[in-house]
Design brief:
With 512 residues, the protein is mainly α. The protein is built from 26 helices and no strands. Among the domains are: 86 residues, no CATH class; 136 residues, no CATH class.
Length: 512
């Protein structure tokens, strides 16, 4: 019997919900026998905070001599029994499992020539497959309809229905082809957006090329929830990518509305709805509909997760949007309270889900806003120490600019000169120096030189003027939006706090 790695078993047990654990324990130990080795091992793994294989072996077998193989076989059996139990658990609630069971029943009945019973099971499966737009299952059902007619030599049925069945098969194949194509197109957009949000001219050309796909035109003319939902997701992402904020707001709103009109699809999968609400939250923020941001944050928290991944997504999207709102409004103390609450909760999720540059960026901003530069620098270093990959290359560059800024704030002038040189080398190597980055690096270089108080203020005013000019350039403005550089330099000139300047900008944006 193949070995089951203990860590693999540990992770599976820890992934179960309370109701799934109860279901399994009733299945594996219906009498509640205290000496049941499988139940004892299961409970012991569940109670462990960290995995300890030796402890588990001693707990189950005590001091009895034992071959390692025996313990491996026990773990392997327990692992397979948990999976079997979860299949039974899911079959009670999952539409896909229900349909699959109907189709398995058809095969069992067909093998025994119980053709009338086969039709009954097929009709049950077909009703669900049509309602939930399960096109591959519909194709299988249509194939069985022909197979059953052939087995019964029902030429009359074939003569009457063959053309209709063939047309339905072609329709299902076309819908499935479009769905697969749309999903691949969506992933292509996603790759572009995750790699870089700078939207330079070359990237806009690539996005426009993707937007001209014949699939989008075909999908726009097709009916059906799955195709139209996927179409709207792509259109919404495209508007976001091109900074068409009003169109992004309307398309993301329409997507949420369409999903909420057919909530029975959520019985099987709620993850796409979570993503749709998140996108609309972003759109509400971009169009300065901040009351709607609050409303949709509440709606996001009210979503009932189906999977552990859903629970993770709700947590991630809620806090990312809540932090973003606090940063825009300059309510850094509220952001800090939310951050502390978020940190307490993240232990229930995989650590990798939050060791992302986008979260570290928000942590940095919040601590910077409350004036805790040590904590801000800590999270900035966490961000800088992340492994290099293709995701959010724009933030990787921005982190180095903010590294200069935080050391400037902390008075680390001796370090600034070498940091400026290394930052310039990095940006040249990446072949992506923005004008605002160049101006800020020049500013720090100038400020490191001996200056009078008047000369320092003139240098600050010069940077302020340069940044204000660059706000009129879309690519530059988008990059500066990630950290409020204009508010920062104004705070240096006026002597007022960064927080108060950000709040002033926020109030001004509401009246404009």
């Amino acid at each position: 019997m193949a070995k089951t790695p203990s860590k693999k078993l540990f992770n599976l047990v820890k992934s179960l919900s309370a109701s799934e654990r109860r279901y399994f324990k009733l299945a594996v130990n219906p009498t509640g026998d205290r000496n049941n080795k499988y139940a004892k091992l299961f409970d012991s793994i569940w109670e462990q905070e960290t995995f300890d294989d030796v402890f588990l072996q001693n707990l189950v077998y005590g001091n009895k001599p034992l071959e390692t193989r025996k313990f491996s076989e026990l773990k392997n059996y327990l692992y397979s029994q948990i999976l079997k139990s979860l299949q039974g658990y899911d079959s009670n609630s999952s539409i896909v499992y229900k349909v699959r069971n109907y189709m398995l029943n058809v095969k069992v009945l067909f093998k025994r020539s119980l053709f009338s019973d086969c039709w009954e099971e097929l009709n049950k499966a077909q009703k669900l497959a049509i309602q939930y737009e399960l096109y591959t299952v519909q194709l299988e059902i249509l194939g069985w309809q022909k197979e059953l007619a052939y087995a019964r030599t029902d030429i009359s049925y074939l003569d009457k229905n063959l053309e209709t069945i063939s047309n339905q098969e072609l329709k299902c194949l076309e819908y499935q082809r479009v769905l697969v194509g749309l999903r691949n197109l969506f992933f292509q957009f996603l790759i572009e957006l995750r790699k870089d949000v700078s939207r330079n001219k070359e990237q806009i050309k690539r996005l426009d090329k993707l937007a001209k796909s014949d699939l989008l035109k075909t999908a726009s003319e097709m009916e059906g929830y799955r195709v139209s939902t996927m179409y709207l997701r792509i259109i919404s992402v495209l508007h976001f990518a091109k900074s068409e904020v009003d169109e992004f707001y309307e398309s993301s709103k329409l997507l949420v509305k369409q999903m909420e009109a057919q909530t029975y699809f959520f019985k099987e999968d709620v993850s796409e709805y979570i993503s749709a609400v998140n996108n609309h939250l972003v759109a509400c923020g971009q169009t300065r509909k901040f009351q709607k941001v609050e409303n949709y944050l509440g709606r996001l928290k009210d979503v009932k997760p189906i999977t552990k991944d859903d629970e993770l997504k709700i947590h991630r999207q809620y806090y990312m949007n809540k932090f973003r709102l606090c940063l825009v409004q300059g309510t850094y103390e509220e952001g800090l309270r939310e951050l502390e609450n978020h940190i307490k909760l993240v232990n229930k999720f995989p650590a990798f889900a939050f060791s992302k540059n986008s979260f570290y960026f928000q942590y940095f901003n919040i601590y910077f806003g409350v004036g805790d530069f040590e904590k801000a620098l800590f999270y900035l270093n966490e961000w800088l120490n992340q492994p290099r990959n293709v995701e959010r290359q724009d933030l990787q560059a921005l982190s180095r600019i903010l590294n200069l800024l935080i050391h400037f704030e902390m008075g680390n002038s001796m370090l600034l000169e070498s940091l400026i040189r290394s930052t310039k080398r990095y940006l040249r190597k990446e072949n992506r120096i923005y004008q605002f980055e160049l101006k800020i690096m020049n500013f720090f270089s100038d400020m490191a030189k001996p200056m009078t108080k008047k000369e320092k203020k003139q240098t600050m005013l010069k940077l302020q003027s340069q940044l204000n000019d660059l706000l009129l350039v879309q690519e530059e403005e988008r990059m500066m939006r990630m950290f409020n550089f204009p508010a920062w330099i104004e705070s240096k000139i006026s002597g007022d706090s960064f927080k108060r300047i950000v709040q002033k900008y926020y109030k001004k944006s509401l009246s404009s």
